[in-house]
From TrEMBL:
PANTHER family: GB|AAF24581.1, GLYOXALASE-RELATED. Pfam families: Glyoxalase. This is VOC family protein. InterPro entries: Anthracycline_SecMetBiosynth (IPR052164), Glyas_Bleomycin-R_OHBP_Dase (IPR029068), Glyas_Fos-R_dOase_dom (IPR004360), VOC_core (IPR037523). Residues 6-123 form the VOC domain.
Length: 128
């Protein structure tokens, strides 16, 4: 069970998700499968399950070149909007924020005051 305020997911964003899937699969033994909810919403998102794990703990997102490639950690929070407000109050910035939808949970990309990118999300059902 994940605790609030802990790193609960990671994401690799790339213009070439096939190459990323092959690379990380061969380096770490990670298995990636297409996220059907994301596919239904028109996204190419792949869920990563580490060797020996029973559930995914990360993903590969196809950017189609719309944003720079990156790898980020994502923290489970009770309320994405409230946490974004706290980030801004403390000198960070919100890069993008999305409400929960059929394709995924409420989430955001934010930067700390030094400019480091990280993610926030509320797990489906609001329980970590």
């Amino acid at each position: 069970m994940t605790m609030w305020g802990t790193v609960a997911w990671f994401e690799i964003a790339t213009a070439d998700p096939d190459a990323a899937q092959t690379f990380y699969g061969e380096v770490f033994g990670w298995r990636a499968v297409k996220d059907e909810k994301g596919a239904a919403a028109g996204m190419d998102y792949r869920l990563i399950t580490a060797a020996g794990a029973t559930a995914p703990t990360g993903g590969i997102m196809a950017t189609d070149g719309a944003m720079p490639g990156h790898a980020v950690f994502t923290v489970a929070v009770r309320d994405v909007a409230q946490t974004c407000a706290t980030v801004e109050r403390l000198g960070g910035t919100v890069v993008a924020r999305h409400e929960a939808s059929e394709s995924g949970p409420a989430n955001a990309y934010v930067r700390d005051p030094a400019g480091n990118l990280f993610g926030l999300f509320t797990p489906p059902g609001g329980a970590a």
